[in-house]
Amino acid sequence: MDLSRPRCRLWRKLVLVASLLACGITQASSQMYISPDPFTGLKGFQSLLTVNNAPKDVQEYSWHRGANDTEENLIISYNTTSHSQQKGPVYSGRETVSHTGALLIKGSQLNDTGNYTARAAAFSDTQRATGWLEVREFEIPGISVNTSIVLEDVDSVVAICHTNNTDVQWYVAHTLVSSSERTAISPDTKTVIIKRVKNYDSPLQCGVKIVLGTVTQRSELIYLTMAYGPSYVMILSEPGNNNGILPAEISSHVEMVCVFNGAPESKYRCIHSGSLLSFSEKNITLPSLTWDQMGRYRCIVENNLTQLTLHEEVQVQHPRECRRFSQSITMSAFLLDFLMAWSILGYVLLFTLILVGLIRCYSTSLLACGIRQASSQIYIAPDSLIGVERYSSSLAVENAPEDVQEYSWHRGANDTEENLIISYNTTSHSRRDGPMYSGRESVSIRGTLRIWRSQLNDTGNYTVRVDTISDTQRAAGWLEVRELEIPQISVNTTSVVDGEDAVAATCYTNDSHIQWYVNYVPVSGNYRMTISPDNKTLVIRIFGRLDSPLQCGIEILPELIQKSDLVYVTVACECSGVVRVKPGVGLRVFPGRSSKTSRTGESGM
């Protein structure tokens, strides 16, 4: 294009104007403005108002509350030359100004919402800008659990976070958790299920992200009460008892105390020779022992939540003496000399008969005084609680001598110090933990080893060493811990109409001895409830609002039931063409169901 022509002169002027704009001539019309920081506007957090396009030669920044920059509205000012700040009439003690002119408000409050005016005084110019700050109150999530009292290592806990946020974080014992073998988080992240709750799974807490996902606001803490035990029972006495035998003289002072563990604190009762003692203290004090007070004392400990019962007993008796044996030996020696004299005179036959009788009597006397204990061998006999995961296991010592000084239990087939689990001194009533001690073992005064909350890896050989004054005996036994079966339950429907529908529940287990529970109460077959011959199916006809929840259980140990999860059935009542769920459940409408009368009429057509 030829720019020397008249038409091209206009193009030359336009190109010149464009060049001026590109060179920054527009800066003269630039205006200072205020922009809030992305993190600004939440109660309790800091808010930051930034000045943009301020002159480069600013001498002072001043911030004012409101839409003007009067001295009465001054919050604070900052001198860029002296680096000093001057506080104004509306200064609250939470404001500061940076060297770039930004206003920082610490601990923002709801009444900080409003207009803010910044004035930038330079050598050549003074500019002003007004901006709006809005402080909002952020959401604090709520939390609830289905139960706060749980059976440790058996029960499950369901926690719900009440929030409108869809990105919920869960904290167990103050630690952030995700889905795992024992922990399940729902797809909307608002529900967490913890299976087989342990004592370190408390407290529970949920949190939601605020402030662009960098700050987490947490709910209150929910603490769980763990129920466990009892895992051991001991009777400590003065004078001390040995292998369950407490020797005491008549008129002497005897004191016994029942020691056990468990939470909540277990109930206990004491029985003397089959009769329940009237007092409820753990201590049994006999100031002056009588013949009537001798006998067997048993301490029984029960935990209603864990359904565990343990007991320990001691026998109070007069010290045993072998005077009868000594007298028998003396009389037998005299009789032997007498018979030998007569045998010389020819009574050989009579001597033979008497000698045979003497030998029998002599042997009987020896056995009565416990001489045969030297040939008896100790052995380990697992009791009825052994072999079930999560419950206590016991290894009892049989045929132990009466003068035992110490019981020591070892893991494996030998009794080396490296394999020591725990030992118990019967004289000082003290225990010593070894390298293999896991924190779950205890030894009773009779030498029984109890393992609390048995685990599958507890399976194996165990060796006990019994030290007496004159001898040391050893015995090895095998403990096998089987995995605990937890029955599962399902129903054909979880929503019924009150008094009209039927519900069929099935219990999934390999056990044939099944107990059914309706609304937490054990039930058997009746006119409304039918249980199948294999006990695995329960049918409830005319299901009512008092028939929920459902649960099944199996007997894993004598007097110990392992129950399934609870299954809740939503029960609705039908009236005026709508089916209304019981309060707190919701509302459902069934087409074609107008009333009980109309249903009867339809059935007759």
From TrEMBL:
Signal peptide: 1-30
The keyword Transmembrane helix belongs to this UniProt entry's keyword annotation: yes
Transmembrane domains' residue ranges: 333-358
Alphabetical UniProt keywords: Disulfide bond, Glycoprotein, Immunoglobulin domain, Membrane, Signal, Transmembrane, Transmembrane helix
Highest taxon listed in the record's lineage: Eukaryota
InterPro entries referenced in this protein's UniProt entry, alphabetically: Ig-like_dom, Ig-like_dom_sf, Ig-like_fold, Ig_sub, Ig_V-set, IgSF_CEA-related
Keyword Transmembrane: yes
UniProt domain Ig-like: residue ranges: 230-315
Protein name: Ig-like domain-containing protein
Native species: Rangifer tarandus platyrhynchus
